[in-house]
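haha ok so turns out i had the wrong file open the whole time. this is the CORRECT one, sorry everyone. sequence first:
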Amino acid sequence: MRRQSEQEPLSRHTSFRIGGAADYYYEPETAEELKSLLAHCTAEGIPSAVIGNGSNLLVGDKGFRGAVIRLGEGFGAIEVNGNCLKAEAGALLAKLARTAADAGLSGLAFAAGIPGTVGGALVMNAGAYGGEMKDVLESAELLMPDGSVRCFTGEELELSYRHSKIPELGAIVLSATFVLTPGEKEEILAEMKRYAESRREKQPLNYPSAGSAFKRPPGDTAARLLDEAGCKGLRIGGAAISEKHAGFLVNLEHASAKDVRAVLTAAAERVEARFGVRLEPEIRFLGEF
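then structure:
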C-alpha cells in the first residue's frame, strides 16, 4: 500500500482544493490491493469511492463517510508497443500525451492539458480541441463488481460526449490501450505547444477549478450561453464564474462546496431564464454537502 490514513482532507486531492475529510483514505499500488480493499469495504458495509486526480470532482464540505481509494502514482505505468500505448488508470494524461509524442505517435496531443488520469478520462470520455478519448481508445481492462477483470473494446464501452458505460457497469478502470498514428515528434510537440498557449490565453489557470463547469448543450457552447446571460463574475462566497472564461467556475478565495453548488444553480437558472436551456453540470459530486 502506497499510503493510507484516516480523516484525510479530500481538499488535498481535488483540483478545486475543496472538500471535507474521508473516514478512510487509501492509495493502493496493485490491482490485488485494490480488489482486497473493495472486498473488505463490502464485507464491512463501508461505502467506498474510487477517484483519480480529482480534476473533475467537487467533494462536499462534510466529506465522505466511508473509504476513498485513489488510483494515482501506484497505477501510473505507461508502455509503448509499436503504435499502441498501454497505460494504467492512474497515469496522468499529460504524461500519456508526452510519452506518445516522444515515441513519434500522434492522436493524443489534445489530452496534454487535461489535468486528469486515464481512468477518469475514460469514465467521462474526456476531450478538448476536437479530440476525445473514444477517438484513440482500443480497449480497457475493467474491475467488475464481482471482482473479475474483463476487457472491453472502445465500442463496447459506448463512449459519447462526456459519457461512457463504465458507471452503469459499476466498474473501475484498471488500464487502457490506445491505438495511435505514426507522426513527426517535433510536429506533435508543436501542436501540444499551441494548445498550451491557447489554454494560458483563454482559461483562468491561476485559480483552482474543475475545468469546464457545464456540459456543452446541443448545437451551442455553455460558455457562450453563460456569457450572454451575464454570468461572468457571478460570485457567491468564495466561488465565482470566471471573468476570463464563462465556462469555468473558480475557487477565488477559500470557497466551500456549498458556494460552488450555489453558483452552479444560480448560473444555470440565469441561462434557462434567458434561453430556455437547462445546463447540466460536467462536475461530478462526492460526499456529504
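The chain has a mean pLDDT of 97.
again sry for the mixup
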